[in-house]
Design goal:
Blueprint lengths: L2 H4 L16 H32 L16 H30 L6 E8 L2 E6 L4 E3 L1 E5 L4 E7 L4 E5 L4 E5 L5 E5 L5 E7 L11 E7 L1 H11 L5 H11 L2 H4 L18 E3 L5 E3 L2 H9 L22 H14 L7
Parallel strand pairs: 1-5, 4-10
Antiparallel strand pairs: 1-2, 2-3, 5-8, 6-7, 6-9, 9-10, 11-12
Helix pairs in contact: 2-3, 5-8
Amino acid sequence: MDDSAQHVANGFDFSVPAAATSAAPIDTLFFTLLALSAVACFAIVGCIVYFCIKYRRGTAADRRNPPSRNRRIEGLWIGMPLAVFLGVFCWAAVLYARMFAAPPDAIDIFVVGKQWMWKVQHGSGKQEIDALHVPLGVPVRLIMTSQDVIHSFFVPAFRLKQDVLPGQYTALWFEATKSGSYPLECSEYCGTDHARMGGRVVVMPAERYQQWLTAHTAQQVPVERGAALFRNRGCAACHTPTSGLHAPALEHVYGTRVTLADGSTRLADREFLHAAIIDPAHHRLAGYEAVMPSFRGVLSDAEIDAIIDYLAASAQPAQTP
């Protein structure tokens, strides 16, 4: 039985397992805020009750010459909450910044949100739908984007939640500390089947993860891998005739001459397409806006080459320049 199942095996349990290095610091911050809020709540309610009793009608309390100002009390009333707020803010800001500062040895996994599923691809090319297999005790960096609307990648056991936006790449990291299967959810309303957009994160020992990765990674030829990358990286969402978006279709562009926004023409060969993927703003075709994000650091050179192989294979015979 995995860790997540143990939490419900003996009846209802509203606690959430902590299965990543980020969980304990966030839990500590949360319970500290809860304790501070409780102290403030009881202090204020206590004062209200005390003054209601002391100064209720008919008591012998001295109501003559009530004080109009007490700088000491005013200073404490302003200074103490401000100090607490600044301390908690700095604490939370440090934790937040650490979420995006991945260790240099972190492995990259790409995640694409789409109505209504999570599409995952590992560095080896292995793909998953609504599942994310990760190694135990190894830092993992997630590079995420959305293919349609705003989603939110949420793993309660890792205390990990990040909005996933169309046309924008977001990266954050985690390191799992307990083996097991943990719920993966979308916590941003994204349409009719939002409630069904879920999956699981499977944490396994590093050796088993490598065995799983090797056993399930298909040996794809470059064109097949390029086709998969073209779909899973969101290229097909914009650059196909049926996408419905005002973006150039790329199925038959390889080997043809294209007109750029500055009026010049270029041959859409391997060099040009590679540069256009890395720096689309400076290789924009005439008649199209500069809305495509750069894939620099998101796609490796090998992945870009595979996509270009796919575009070359799907194109009509190249025209003579």
